[in-house]
Specification:
The complex is a heterodimer of chains A (about 425) and B (about 110). With about 425 residues, chain A is an alpha+beta fold. Chain A has helices spanning about 5-10, 20-25, 150, 170-175, 190-195, 195-205, 210-215, 295-300, 330-335, 345-355, 370-385, 395, 415-420, and strands spanning about 25-30, 45-50, 50-55, 65, 80, 85-90, 95, 100-105, 120-125, 125-130, 130-135, 160-165, 220-225, 230-235, 240-250, 255, 265-275, 280-285, 405-410. In chain A, strands 12, 13, 14, 15, 16, 17, 18 and 19 form an eight-stranded antiparallel beta sheet that branches. A four-stranded antiparallel beta sheet of chain A has the order 2-3-4-9, with no helix packed on it. Chain A is elongated and about 85 Å long. Chain B has about 110 residues and is an all-alpha fold. Chain B has one domain. The chains are: A alpha+beta (about 425), B mainly alpha (about 110).
Chain lengths: ~425, ~110
């Protein structure tokens, strides 16, 4: 449980709030390069950390991210004309470059030199790892880019999707690191009921996760604080002399990496506050060793796992709360626990059902919520640290992000820190 | 700090702050174990485990209070429920020893 004040401190991210200032110490994913594909293309609206912004790619190919509203009469620059290294407001012709500097003001006498005195918010951007990132904090604290493995693999080895989630970012992270929900929310009815046919199928399969989740319903939860965030360990009894471990990574301020099986694609998320009521879900699938396989592309196309189809303009998922996520009660009776297709929509349905900002003073936690408690405490500690003048270490040390998740069988007497040391190092 | 947690048989170990106390009830035995763990908790991870244990006690005392018809039994648990809330906040404030002292009254 959190106090009302703690809940507010964690979930409010507008400029000037403690968490808002914390997020503004990191590079955050802002948009897909394809949203501004070519020089002088149409500008797009971007809402980030409670700010209404406009992104545009100028004549030289640089991406600008500037305040949406022209300072003259507050008209939206979304209607602006992207021309000759700047975005021109079509109301009275004021023009701004990618830094937000006014470079032309044709409706004022030139001798006043008024344009040199006018600028709007313009944030640094960087194209990296298949995304346009933005830094919205003080220039003197501009951080290093996080050396995330997925950002460093070749193009064909990675797929990134963007979708709107209608909850605060914290609810989404909590879902991402809560490993106990997958046995229910993402399960089939047979898996939940442990039908004979399911048990038989799993016992003889190579799917270690399914096999050992079946054998041990009461796992151990552990956490370890690191330079970049947390390693969250879940340990289950496996064979007589072995434990089955799954290690999830939480990387500040809001990245996660899901435990993966060696040889398969790795999946992760980054949740960025759009405002206090909504967030952007960035979902990344990557394979450091090879291009994504046809099977993996098929899973992406069919939305069976972590990606979901969205409206190409709003990025709102096709399955959303207005159409009850296309819930199929027949399927729920006979096939899957939710009757909702795909892990992404299942997560989103349940997280959005809690309301945009869940009242954490009313929740009832248990020891299986250890990871959630740890993540909140870490973020609160970091946010308080910044308010007291301590800059976030991870923001200034991009190298610490060079990690991945893991799942492994390990002899019971081997320390997981030792046993997984090599596995949780990124390779690319 | 190890991720391994503790694999020794419960009840036979020295108090290990990296071990999460299994919370199935709010008996004196469970409370004593949590208090013992609070007394030796120092690291971030230890405090997270203690907070999770206290959350669990708060949850089950809360359900008890909501469902128990006998007012005298309810009255007895009400104080513990409130005290666990305070102890939880002390742990969040990195004051596990103070939390242990508060809970001691319920043994």
């Amino acid at each position: 449980m959190l106090s009302k004040e703690e809940n507010e401190r964690l979930t409010q991210t507008n400029a000037g709030t403690p968490a808002g200032e914390y997020f503004r110490r990191f590079w955050v994913p802002a948009l897909l390069p394809a949203e501004v594909p070519t020089p002088d293309c149409a500008p797009v609206r971007v809402r980030l950390l409670g700010e209404n912004l406009i992104a545009f790619r100028d004549t030289n190919g640089h991406v600008g991210l500037i305040d949406e509203f022209c300072p003259h009469r507050r008209a939206s620059l979304f209607w602006g004309r992207n021309e000759e290294c700047g975005l021109r407001c079509v109301y009275h012709g004021w023009k701004f470059d990618v830094q937000g500097t006014c470079v032309d003001m044709p409706n004022e006498p030139q001798e006043y030199g008024f344009e040199n005195k006018v600028r709007i918010a313009g944030y640094p951007t960087c194209e990296y790892g298949g995304l346009v990132w933005a830094y919205m904090g003080p220039p003197q604290h501009q951080p290093e880019l996080p050396k995330l493995e997925w950002a460093r693999v070749p193009e064909g080895h990675r797929y990134i999707s963007k979708r709107l989630q209608e909850t605060n970012y914290l609810q989404a992270i909590e879902g991402g690191i809560d490993s106990s929900h997958s046995n229910y929310l993402h399960a089939t009815v047979d898996a939940f009921r442990l039908t004979d046919s399911y048990v038989e199928k799993v016992k003889n399969s190579n799917n270690l996760r399914a096999k050992y989740h079946l054998l041990d319903k009461a796992p151990w939860f552990t956490v370890k604080k690191t330079d970049y965030g947390l390693v969250i360990g879940v340990r289950r009894n496996a064979e007589e002399d072995q434990f089955y471990w799954r290690l999830t990574q939480f990387l500040l301020p809001s990245h996660t990496i899901i435990p993966y099986e060696k040889g398969l694609a790795i999946h992760g998320h980054c949740w960025v506050p759009r405002d206090d009521q909504t967030c952007w879900t960035w979902t990344i699938s990557w394979n450091p060793d090879a291009p994504l396989s046809e099977e993996e592309w098929e899973s992406i196309r069919k939305e069976t796992f972590v990606h979901a189809r969205v409206d190409p303009v709003t990025f709102r998922p096709i399955r959303n709360k207005d159409n009850q996520y296309l819930l199929d009660r027949e399927q729920q009776r006979g096939s899957t626990m939710t009757g909702i297709h795909g892990f992404a929509a299942q997560d989103q349905a349940l997280q959005e059902s809690m309301g945009p900002i869940v009242d954490r003073t009313r929740e009832r936690l248990g020891t299986s919520d250890t990871a959630i408690i740890a993540m909140r405490r870490l973020l609160l500690q970091e946010i308080r640290g910044l308010a007291e003048g301590r800059e976030p270490f991870a923001a200034q040390h991009g190298d610490v992000y060079w990690v991945r998740s893991a799942s492994l069988l390990l002899k019971r007497d081997v320390d997981i820190g030792e046993g997984a040391r090599e596995l949780i190092k990124a390779e690319v | 700090m190890s991720l391994n947690g503790d694999s020794r048989i419960p009840g036979t170990e020295d108090v290990d702050p990296a071990h999460i106390v299994p919370v199935q009830d709010f008996s004196s035995k469970t409370l004593r174990s949590i208090i013992d763990h609070l007394k030796v908790s120092t690291d971030f991870e230890h405090l997270v485990y203690r907070e999770a244990e206290l959350d669990a006690i708060w949850t089950i005392t809360g359900f008890f209070l909501a469902n128990e018809a006998d007012s005298s039994r309810r009255e007895a648990v009400k104080d513990l429920h409130a005290c666990v809330h305070k102890a939880h906040d002390l742990v969040a404030d990195r004051r596990p020893a103070a939390a242990a002292m508060l809970l001691q009254a319920f043994l």
